[in-house]
Design brief:
319 residues; 2 domains; Trefoil (Acidic Fibroblast Growth Factor, subunit A); 27 strands; 8-stranded antiparallel sheet; 5-stranded antiparallel sheet
Length: 319
């Protein structure tokens, strides 16, 4: 990635060194608490018309984007397609036709977007994409379209059609907060839940069940050895008791990172999922119920082919 920090725009040298965040992101249209469609940069970018589609139901190359910003002091992101073009809100927004193009290979004012968290159903928060002119990007009908002016940039208030979800692909980076959606063998999905946001040591410390956003929030923090600690919203860490031995369980009341708090996040860029491997080499997985009337169990399995695949949805960006 070209360092844009030294370029002068309109006679003013940019203050921030703009660099891509690790990995890729898919931009999903929020619909009824689950993303139904993904944003597509037609041809992977480079189009002045028909640049964006919203009908993809799976993530392939054209649905992968890089997010680029200048660090914690810079609220702006530019969104780059797989082939190095940027999403441009023409005129800074305010349009209902040909509103987004992908011809630019350098990010300037019209290529800046703010990702603003929004309250909503499901694994909130979602995000609104605000243009440099203060407007919001709209995916008409929650997406599902590939002809006509399917994306507008004239909304002055973010409502349902202005909500998007960001799926992480590949390197999770560090200090981004995610909700972890577990996909089990039946194809249904549930979200990892730290009861009360952490600080628990009982068998219900880590579950899969609905809950408020703060219980679904986990921040992977990269360690010197390449492993990650999973920090809950309380600031305490997830511990795999016994290092991840099957049947032993988890706690969320550890204030510092030792071996049992270290996990390997192993991404699969093909299906946009991640395995979570414990210190002993097992994998965090959703298993069946111990009793008919009990909730599903979070435990460890040794076989990666039987392990739960997790999708990482962005909840917050940090330094």
């Amino acid at each position: 990635m070209v360092d844009q920090g030294a370029r002068a725009t309109a006679g003013i040298t940019e203050r921030f060194v703009r660099r891509p965040l690790p990995g890729y992101f898919a931009i999903a249209m929020h619909n009824d608490a689950r993303p139904a469609y993904y944003m597509t940069a037609n041809g992977a970018g480079g189009d002045a018309t028909d640049a964006i589609h919203t009908d993809a139901t799976a993530v392939n190359d054209w649905e992968k984007f890089r997010l680029i910003n200048g660090g914690v002091e810079d609220p702006n992101f530019s969104i780059m397609t797989l082939n190095g073009h940027f999403l441009t809100a023409v005129g800074g927004g305010g349009r209902t036709s040909n509103a987004i193009i992908t011809t630019e290979t350098w990010a300037q004012e019209w290529e800046n977007f703010k990702l603003i968290p929004q309250a909503g159903t499901g694994f909130s928060p979602h995000f609104a994409l605000q243009t440099s002119g203060g407007y919001f990007v709209t995916a008409l009908g929650h997406g599902g379209q590939n002809t006509g002016d399917i994306v507008h940039t004239d909304a002055q208030v973010a409502k349902d059609w202005e909500m998007f979800d960001l799926l992480k692909i590949g390197d999770p980076g560090t200090h981004l907060t995610y909700s972890f959606e577990g996909l089990n063998s039946s194809g249904t999905s549930l979200f990892l839940n730290a009861t009360d946001g952490g600080r628990h040591s009982d068998s219900a410390s880590l579950t899969v069940q609905p809950g408020p956003g703060y219980m679904l929030a986990f921040t992977p923090i990269r360690q010197d050895d390449g492993a990650y600690a999973l920090q809950t919203s309380s600031g305490y860490y997830v511990t795999a008791i016994g290092g991840g031995l099957p049947g032993v369980g988890y706690r969320t009341d550890t204030p510092e990172v030792n071996n049992w708090e270290k996990f390997r996040l192993i991404p699969n860029e093909v299906d946009c999922t991640t395995h979570i491997q414990t210190h002993t080499g097992t994998y965090i997985s959703i298993l069946g119920r111990r009793r008919r009337d009990s909730p599903l169990v979070i435990d460890n399995v040794a076989d990666a082919s039987r392990a739960t695949r997790w999708r990482l949805w962005v909840m917050a960006f940090h330094a």
